[in-house]
Amino acid sequence: MDLSGILSIGGYPGLFKMVSQMKTGLVVESLLDGKRMPAYSTQKILALEDISIYTDEDDVPLADVFSLLFKKTAGKAGPNHKKVSIQELSDYLASVLPNYDKERVYNSDLKKLFQWFNLLAEKGLLKEKEEEKKEVKAKKPAKKKEAAKEEKPKPKSAPKGKKGSTKKVIK
User: Fold this and answer.
1) How much is the pLDDT for 136?
2) What residue segments make up the domains of the chain, in order of their start?
3) Is CATH 3.30.9.30 correct for 52-123?
4) Rounded to an integer, what distance in angstroms lies between the CA atom of residue 54 and that of residue 104?
5) Which of 4, 25, 56, 58 is buried deepest, with most CB atoms within 10 A?
6) CATH fold of 6-48
7) CA–CA distance from 107 to each of 25, 38, 112, 154, 159 (Å)?
């Protein structure tokens, strides 16, 4: 899963996609309604690629958890965090990631996890790495052809002398 450029901003609902950078922060686009807004450096901005889930042994990156959920749901949205009880969310996560730390992963974390997963699944931003590789391979040959067109040597023009200087040939 590639979660680069997907952000969570404290105080705002949903997730955001980074569009560009400014001197004082970022320009982001909401995945909920598509509106753009500035996100200043004073706000709490979290990149989803930096978030991980506590387990008994080691922390698991959020991208890996989303990949496991993606396989279980076959690319569709998971359980709705508003309609399902916390116990059901916990059991669902335990079926995918059995060794997650139930003491350090709070109920609010479970709700956010499934809310984010469902939003990304609805928008089609969750793809398996194999699918991403296939898309990259499909795009690479086109780039090679374009690069080959650009690499054609240009005809050389005659060298230009200095301005105002003329050479006279004496025989």
Assistant:
1) 46
2) 6-48, 52-123
3) no
4) 7
5) 25
6) SH3 type barrels. (2.30.30)
7) 31, 30, 9, 65, 74
